[in-house]
Amino acid sequence: MNNFMKNIISFCSASTRKKLIIIRVTLILIKVKAIVNFFPLKSYFIKYFETDSTTRIDLQPFQYEMGYIRKILNLLPINTTCLIECMVMQNYFRKFGVYIPINIGVSKESFLKAHAWIESKDSPGYEKLI
């Protein structure tokens, strides 16, 4: 409960811009969690993947927002996975006309081991989102 109060106080003292980001990310997270829990992921990925999977986007201008979104997701009392975090990032930046493809890797040993991540233009390939 003590951390919850610290987060509320931190939210109240944040700038208007940061409050709007926090509210937007929270709403997107709720939407993404609902999509994942109630709909097949295939319908989500068909709708939102509009870029070529070989195209890498320069995410350098968005590092501040991406770091802030990660911080918000860690502070919210909702469990998130790497896939959920990627989907929240994708939804957040889509509002600004930036389409970020999500990469999903599945282990060859076990189909239950998987990871989702976002690649930027200058990353060597695997960039952990968490």
Describe what this molecule looks like in 3D:
Strands 1-2 form a two-stranded antiparallel ribbon. The protein has one domain. With 130 residues, the chain is mainly alpha-helical. The chain is 53% helix and 6% strand. It has helices spanning 2-13, 16-38, 41-48, 63-75, 82-94, and strands spanning 103-106, 114-117. The chain is globular, with a radius of gyration of 16 Å.
Keywords:
globular, 5 helices, disordered C terminus, 130 residues, 2 strands, two-stranded antiparallel ribbon, mainly alpha, 6% strand
In short:
The protein is mainly alpha-helical and 130 residues long. It contains five helices and two strands. Helices cover 53% and strands 6% of the residues.
* Strands, total number: 2
Write down the secondary-structure element order.
HHHHHEE
Shape: globular
Strand content: 5-15%
Mean pLDDT: 77
Describe the largest sheet.
2 strands, antiparallel
Count of discrete structural domains: 1
- End-to-end CA span: 24 Å
Residue windows where pLDDT falls under 50 for at least 5 positions = 125-130
Instruction: Provide the spatial order of strands within the biggest beta sheet.
Output: 1-2
Classification by helices and strands: mainly alpha
The tally of helices reads 5
Helix content: 40-55%
Alpha carbon gyration radius: 16 Å
